Amino acid sequence: MSNSVAIAATAAPVSGPGTVIVIGVTSAIARALAGEFAKHGHDLIVASRDIEETNAIATDLSVRHNVKVISKYFEAEIFGTHATFVDECIRDANGSLDGVVIGFGFMDEQSVAEAKFEVARRTIDVNVTATISVCEKFATQFETTRRGFIIGISSVAGDRGRQTNYIYGASKAAMTTYLQGLRNRLFKSGVHVLTVKPGFVDTKMTFGLPLPGPLVATPEAAARAIYNANEAKKNTAYVPWFWRYIMLIIGSIPEFQFKKMKL
Amino acid sequence: MPAHVKQKIAGWGGWPRVECAVFRPEKRRGIADVLANGEQPHYIARGLGRSYGDVAVNPGGGVINTTRLNRMIAFDENAGVLECEAGVSLEEILETFVPRGWFLPVTPGTKFVTVGGAIANDVHGKNHHIDGTFGEHVDRITLLTPTGSIITCSPKQNEDVFWATVGGIGLTGIILTATIRLQRITSAYIKVDYRQCTNLDALLAAIRETDDKYKYSVAWVDCIAKGAKLGRSVLMSGDHVAANELPSQYGHALSIPHKSKKNVPFNLPGFLLNPLSIGAFNKLFYAVHPSKQGQITDYDKYFYPLDAIHNWNRGYGKNGFAQYQATFPHDGVEGLVKLLEKLSASGRASFLAVLKRMGPGSKGLLSHPIDGWTLTLDIPVKDGIVQFLNESDELVAQYNGRLYTAKDSCTRPEVFAAMYPRIKEFKAIKAKLDPAGKLSSRLARRCGIVEGPVEP
């Protein structure tokens, strides 16, 4: 037995699917994406700040897909814990680390974020500061091993500032720009960075909004699209795909006109 | 505070459609939070919304959608025993376990139902005459009671709560998790024998003669045919194919070809389904199914032909339809004939009519099946439908038959009580578990299982 552990630990670049880390796995898109990787044979490390739910999701993924799933506690806002968290993830992946999914995020209603600075700050802390904190640590690791991918779940809300959610939108714009730069830096190391921009996906965030059914994707459909975009080494993936064109139109409205509009 | 959304929702028949406060918790303790919050006067759990009538709608109250609580908890590979949250769908179970050689113990005609819904309606399938109901393959349930405690019940532990919950249409508590026994298969294929029957007598004789030889059995009945042809039908009897009997062209025995799904993107105009078009379809169905033996088909095509067309219910137009399922005891078979004659004479054609022999019922206090014959019809919603169905109800009751809560939309309290004599025992257990009446639904109030106005 001890032999096989030693062999696994020193194995050179693994050929089959390795381990994928999904942080913020209690979000519906991240959970579905974890399932998509598991379906393709990847072992998983899943994490969130709700350890009870994370354990439930981890058990579910291992029962369904017969892969090894490790569950971990992760608190985005306590930046000082991130180094240990990332080190533990790398250790537990045991030399087979394939990539990481940044699935955590925070959004409250715009009116709340306007009225309470604490909420605005939290939006930036989670979506920007924590993303940078975690990604930098993984980036260093991936540069050393010269393999790996980073998938960041950003948002179409970052493509243009609108009065109905510009604080959340600003945090996602920062995340998108950050991932863009990171992609540029890691390209020469053979490490891929995918920015995901969900439009309407049927999650807690959109539940109950009066949205036209055909514009809304299930988390599972979104996850398949994200998985395929990552396999194809796409840089940016809008999910559902046609949001690229919706945002193209929204982005092309001149600012002098846009500022008068209610969107 | 748990957020709700005001939505107009209906069962799969699209009728009645009513406004409810819908909650969709994503965390395990979220259901308890919604109940404890007590913002609505009462609540009912709802899964994938495939029951036809008003069993999972609750005007003037809350509806708790459980579909995001769909985590599997444990699977015993040797015994085929699965423990999962109630929001897991039968489709998810099939996708996960058919490739490993396990199949559902009992399945209704759609795989888009949750485990919680399958237990709460104590659903049955084409193997009822052999294997009984879904609830009879459940080892254990964890139930969140309306007072906020979580209890485990099984046929051995809290037996009374268990058999009130199996078939208890969500009124005893909210099912959090269930442990169910799957059945072993060696292939994902079914071999089917088709037998044409020229009328109802021939069909009943054929079923009586052959049913014990097959695990699965169901008949498609043409409800347009009248007189001597009344009950013209195709009997379809099936069994699982063993891997070693499966011809090699089918490839891997436990995987089936992937099918693309068709969709009905909007409500079709109601006039498309009229006695003429339905009659033509039924004639065609009869004609293309001559008697033949040993046709091999995959489980998806055999059990779930309608699941291949998303939103098929929109084919009935925006008014929707009522599904009507009546089960008669063996000595009430005359009632079945009269029901078919009544339908055939009414011009309220049913696109789909299905007849099956049922085995003995389960111990579920409000569980539907009884030893006898069950007939299922789709009836488009048109003027006079309530009166037509109420008259039909009386006919069914007169022959000691009963209707199925998962499909019902019109039955009145006195008729329901006559059909379900164990309702008194059910009410006693419900009163103990739910003294404040926190769980209720439109159907529960309409049928007099729970006090209160049907609509606010």
Explained architecture:
The complex is a heterodimer of chains A (263) and B (456). Chain A is α/β, with parallel strands linked by helices and 263 residues long. Chain A contains ten helices and seven strands. Chain A has a single domain (15-258), classed as 3-Layer(aba) Sandwich (Rossmann fold). Chain A has a seven-stranded parallel sheet with strand order 3-2-1-4-5-6-7, sandwiched between helices. In chain A, β1, α2 (28-39) and β2 form a beta-alpha-beta unit. Residues 1-14 of chain A have low confidence and may be disordered. With 456 residues, chain B is an alpha+beta fold. Chain B folds into three domains: 5-66 and 423-446, Uridine Diphospho-n-acetylenolpyruvylglucosamine Reductase, domain 2, CATH 3.30.43; 72-184, Uridine Diphospho-n-acetylenolpyruvylglucosamine Reductase, domain 3 (2-Layer Sandwich), CATH 3.30.465; 189-416, Vanillyl-alcohol Oxidase, Chain A, domain 3 (3-Layer(aba) Sandwich), CATH 3.40.462. Chain B has an eight-stranded antiparallel sheet. In chain B, a hairpin with an 8-residue loop joins β1 (5-9) and β2. The two termini of chain B are 24 Å apart. The model of chain B has no long low-confidence stretch (mean pLDDT 93). At the A-B interface, α3 of A face β5 of B.
Strand content range of chain B: 15-25%
First-to-last CA distance of chain A: 61 Å
- What structural class do helix, strand and pairing data of chain B support? alpha+beta
**Total strand count of chain A, please?**
7
Tell me the overall shape of chain B: globular
Describe the strand arrangement of the main beta sheet of chain A, using strand numbers. 3-2-1-4-5-6-7
Distance between the termini of chain B: 24 Å
Q: What Rg of chain A is obtained from the alpha carbons, in whole angstroms?
A: 19 Å
H/E series of chain A, N to C? Answer: HEHEHEHEHHEHEHEHH
Going by CATH, the architecture of chain A would be 3-Layer(aba) Sandwich
Kindly estimate the percentage of residues of chain A that lie in beta strands according to DSSP. Answer: 5-15%
Radius of gyration of chain B: 21 Å
Helix fraction of chain A by DSSP (H/I, runs of at least 4): 40-55%
**Total domains of chain B:** 3
Put simply, the count of helices of chain A is 10
Helical fraction of chain B: 10-25%
Helix count of chain B?
A: 13
CATH structural fold name of the largest domain in chain B: Vanillyl-alcohol Oxidase, Chain A, domain 3
Oligomer: heterodimer
